[in-house]
């Protein structure tokens, strides 16, 4: 291309624009860093040229031009939960009841799927990350009108914002619509208690064979009942959307 050999700001800018058409634009920064490391003994100013406004703006522009639309999963709704309750609510299957319990609790408490089930990788499975059955408690509290309302609570050992396993209490309050998680949990706990493989299990959520549910197991239930735009994150986002629709302030949802 008859360009000067010296890595000036112009040369590096043109190189960044050229490479962004052949590799991921987000990787161009890494390539430029490698070039600076290799050429700095021969061209002492190469790093200063790399950090010039021209090169930085060129790289930023390339990243923006190559960006893709974010593909977010759709949120679940209380109507979706009502449909699942209609389908599985009368089932005598332990795993069906477990699916409903995880779905309803995650929706009501805005929980991540990873906090309710184990990952598929065996190396990432730890019992200290499981919600303990012994932490489950039922209680009554007063609503804003002074009336009594039933709640269940349990301890979440750790999550993305709490990596030291200090524990955090999760409270699920009874609702008056079909998304009420408390009767769903009672049905699950009844089957859990009657099953010898799960009766004494330390984890709160456990399958009929005594194993802790894995992510793929839960996702397969979602795939069997919803379109491809509903996946694990739809539980948490659906619960947050439901609260917003019901007029709960944003700072409370957060």
From TrEMBL:
**A single GO molecular function term of this UniProt record:** DNA binding
Query: Which SUPFAM superfamilies does the annotation name?
Result: DNA breaking-rejoining enzymes (SSF56349)
Output one GO BP term: DNA recombination
Against InterPro entries, the record matches this protein to: DNA_brk_join_enz, Integrase-like_cat_sf, Integrase_catalytic, Phage_Integrase-like_Recomb
In this chain the Tyr recombinase domain maps to: 71-254
Keyword Zinc carried by entry = no
Q: Which UniProt keywords apply?
A: DNA recombination
From the record, what ranges are coiled-coil?
A: none
**Any keyword rRNA processing?**
no
Output the PANTHER family linked to this UniProt entry.
P CELL-TYPE AGGLUTINATION PROTEIN MAP4-LIKE-RELATED, PHAGE_INTEGRASE DOMAIN-CONTAINING PROTEIN
* Name of the protein: Tyr recombinase domain-containing protein
| Annotated organism of origin | Auricularia subglabra (strain TFB-10046 / SS5) (White-rot fungus)
């Amino acid at each position: 291309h008859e360009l000067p050999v010296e890595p000036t700001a112009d040369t590096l800018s043109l190189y960044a624009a050229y490479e962004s058409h052949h590799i991921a634009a987000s990787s161009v920064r890494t390539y430029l860093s490698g070039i600076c490391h290799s050429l700095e003994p021969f061209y002492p100013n190469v790093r200063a040229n790399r950090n010039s406004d021209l090169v930085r703006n060129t790289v930023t522009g390339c990243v923006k031009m190559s960006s893709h639309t974010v593909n977010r999963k759709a949120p679940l709704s209380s109507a979706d939960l009502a449909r699942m309750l209609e389908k599985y609510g009368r089932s005598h299957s332990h795993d069906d009841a477990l699916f409903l319990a995880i779905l309803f609790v995650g929706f009501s408490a805005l929980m991540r799927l990873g906090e309710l089930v184990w990952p598929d990788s065996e190396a990432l499975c730890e019992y200290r990350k499981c919600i303990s059955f012994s932490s489950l408690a039922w209680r009554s509290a007063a609503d804003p009108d002074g009336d009594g309302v039933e709640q269940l609570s349990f301890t979440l050992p750790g999550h993305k914002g709490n990596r030291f396993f200090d524990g955090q209490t999760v409270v699920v309050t009874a609702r008056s619509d079909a998304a009420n998680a408390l009767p769903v949990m009672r049905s699950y706990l009844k089957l859990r208690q009657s099953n010898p493989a799960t009766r004494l299990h330390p984890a709160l959520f456990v399958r009929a064979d005594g194993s802790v549910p894995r992510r793929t197991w839960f996702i397969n239930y979602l795939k069997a009942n919803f379109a491809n735009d509903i996946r694990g994150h739809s539980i948490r986002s659906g619960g947050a959307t439901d609260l917003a629709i019901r007029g709960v302030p944003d700072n409370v949802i957060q």
